[in-house]
């Protein structure tokens, strides 16, 4: 029963409700990416000290920026959204969506590592705070802006290609994003 329900949800999300689900997911992704952009503007544009540069929501709600549970939760939401909506994509769009999924999988691993450290109190490489693997080389703000950008860009390419498929890709589409295909012109009969 559970697998049937899961298949039903997947079929619904990747069929008649793919465009709506994809739109809702992209709104959430853009809002999150916007938070990282706002934090970058606060640091490099406005000259705020890093601890005060918390994005738009982090300024009135500072606990948002320090909650590893929240960051990990969002990494899981991103991973789940990329996974569940993937079946609706075909051709070139599916390839780009899969690239975003692969990058997000690694980003999720980094957040899992941060969460485990925050919960255990044991930090990677003797750091004073939870530290991801790539954070051993790059500062956290820049690293997460980079991660979110390199997940976002292939998603945008995938959505663009998905909404503008080639005729062959459109014929394979079974979701609500499928364009209406006009009938092929009929060749004139020989005289």
UniProtKB/TrEMBL annotation:
Superkingdom of the organism of origin: Bacteria
UniProt keywords, alphabetically: Membrane, Transmembrane, Transmembrane helix
Name used for this protein in its record: HXXEE domain-containing protein
Chain ranges passing through the membrane: 69-85, 112-133, 145-163
């Amino acid at each position: 029963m559970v697998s049937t329900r899961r298949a039903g949800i997947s079929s619904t999300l990747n069929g008649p409700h793919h465009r709506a689900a994809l739109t809702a997911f992209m709104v959430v992704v853009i809002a999150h990416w916007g938070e990282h952009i706002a934090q970058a503007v606060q640091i490099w544009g406005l000259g705020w000290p890093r601890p005060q540069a918390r994005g738009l929501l982090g300024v009135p709600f500072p606990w948002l920026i320090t909650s590893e549970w929240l960051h990990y939760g969002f990494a899981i939401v991103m991973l789940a959204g990329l996974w569940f909506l993937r079946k609706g994509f075909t051709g070139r769009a599916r390839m780009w969506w899969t690239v975003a999924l692969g990058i997000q999988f690694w980003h999720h691993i980094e957040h899992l590592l941060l969460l485990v450290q925050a919960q255990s109190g044991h930090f990677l490489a003797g750091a004073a705070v939870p530290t991801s693997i790539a954070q051993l080389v790059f500062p956290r703000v820049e690293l997460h802006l980079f991660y979110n950008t390199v997940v976002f860009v292939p998603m945008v390419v995938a959505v663009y290609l998905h909404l503008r498929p080639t005729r062959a890709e459109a014929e394979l589409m079974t979701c609500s994003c499928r364009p209406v295909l006009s009938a092929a012109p009929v060749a004139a009969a020989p005289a």
